[in-house]
Structure formats: C-alpha cells, structure tokens
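Researcher: Please predict.
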Amino acid sequence: MEIHHGRHHQAYVTALNNALKDHGQLAALPLQDLLAKLDQVPESIRTTVRNNAGGHANHSMFWPVMGGRGGAPTGDLAQAITRDLGGFDKMKADFNAAGAGRFGSGWVFVTATRDGKLALTTRPNQDTPLMDGQRVLFGNDVWEHAYYLKYQNRRPDYLAAWWNVVNWDRVAERYAAAKAGTLGV
C-alpha cells in the first residue's frame, strides 16, 4: 500500500496539476465539481483530467475508509445497508462479486444519496460516480496495482481480506456527511 499511495496516487495528483496548470478556473474547482463538469474541460486535456482527477478522487476516498478493524457497521449506516442492500453479509457478497467481475481495471463502490439511499456500482479505470453527480460512501480499488504484490491474480482473495481493514467509524462519518449534503470526495 505504501507504493500504491506514494507512487500511483501521487502520479494522479501530479498529472492532474500539470494538465490544469494553464486553466486556473478549472484548477480552482473542488475536485467533485471538476469531475461533474468534465464536458466543460477543453477537449485537449479532457481525457487526462478524467483519468487523473478520477484517480485522485477515488484514492482520496479510499485511504481514509481503511485503517480500521473491520467488523460490521452499526447505527444508521447498518440500518441503511439492511434497507437498501439486503444486509451486511449480502452487501459484502454482492460488493465482492461486483469487484471480482469488473473486467480489467476499475473500482467497486457503494454510493449514498442525500436522502440516505445506498446503491452498489462499479466503474472502469479511474472513473467515479462523482462524474455522474453521485457521492461515494466507500469503495475498493480493483486495479492490479492495489493487490498484485500480495495477492498476484487472486482478486477475490484481496476483496475478501479488504473487509478486515475497513474503518466503519469513518464510513459512518461519510454517511452522515452524505445525508447532510456535505460529502465531497
């Protein structure tokens, strides 16, 4: 994960900054707004911005939702998972299946609306639900760089083990922010 953070994530930030260096108004936008307005980004840098802003946003969400002790969520978040995703065990199974089934590189996410409704989705490459104006509650990186050194080609094993480090307190904070309309990246 140190290589993942220090090299991969940093490369997205550096490339995004370089792409936006001559576009001050775009560079000043909050990351989620930039991603929601990709159609306003000049064609000459749009793909670079899409890939690198998406990579930066996805990873900026990814790091803080880890570092916990796994387990299961509680409170409002647990109730929402039961209501919208069929319960914790079903959500985990569906999340893992979606992540394992994502062809090539990409992400698996749980999104949250302002009214607290949760949904499961995947995106290819560094695309993010932020590009569609949605908010990401949490997600997992299923690019090989996230797991290959430890798990080689065993993506399902990586996905199963990832739940042991989810920080449910942080995810619950993100859920409260989503419902308050303040959840950014």
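Model: The chain has nine helices and three strands.
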